[in-house]
Amino acid sequence: MFIIGEALVQRPVTDTEFSCDLDSCKGACCTMRGGRGAPLLDEEIDQMRNALPFALKYLNKKHRTYIEKFGFFEGNSGDYTTKCIHNKACVFVYYQNGIARCSLERAFEEGYTTWKKPISCHLFPVRISNGTPATVYYEKIDECNAGVKKGEQEKLPLVEFLEEPLRRRFGDDWYLYLLIHVNGEVK
Which of 20, 95, 118, 122 could connect to 165 by a Cys-Cys bridge, CB 3.0–4.6 Å? Predict the structure, then answer.
């Protein structure tokens, strides 16, 4: 482990090669069993509220009705998560060609919003603990084995695959320090 700025980074984050393989996993990170959905930062609740009207149009009737009846998040300040349907699919999931996708992200991609999706989703399979300092760690799950295999074939380090969300969460300087730590130089 090593510290960069405000975060303690565990070695698997820098030592793993990874590239999502949605054709294999079918978007499993959005539909994992467990009851609680994606971790949310407090400030993301309002961003999600603003994006909600645009994201709803991509959801099926079951998910729209669920959100209208029960809302889209649960928990308390510092411990919010998205809600899940039947302790599995995130309420924001829609399916395209059998792959679970995020309706928030689609609204962003189609230009309806300026906010992409929760940072915890954008960073997955990297997670960040709530401690001080925050710990940045790789959450290894079987559903992502195809992503590891694809990353190894492409020789794509996880930190490069996740460049956009790491910069989004920690900033450009932090990310550059991470690359220098990993590579000894910036590529």
Answer: 122
Tell how strand 134-138 and strand 7-9 pair up: parallel
pLDDT, residue 187, reads 57
Give the separation between CA 39 and CA 79, rounded to whole angstroms. 7
120, amino acid identity: S
DSSP 143: G
For 15, 72, 149, 181, the CA distances from 41, given in Å and listed in that order, are 27, 14, 31, 27
Q: What is the mean pLDDT of the chain?
A: 94
For 78-94, b/e burial (b = at least 16 CB within 10 A) is: eebbbbbbeeebbbbbb
Cα–Cα distance for residue pair 12/158, rounded to 1 Å: 9
The residues near 125 (Cβ < 8 Å, ≥ 6 apart) are: 18, 29, 138, 139, 140, 141, 144, 147, 158
C-alpha 156/C-alpha 161 separation (Å) is 7
pLDDT, one tens digit per residue, over 72-127 is 999 999 999 999 998 889 999 999 999 999 999 999 999 999 999 999 999 999 99
State the amino acid at position 69 in one-letter form: K
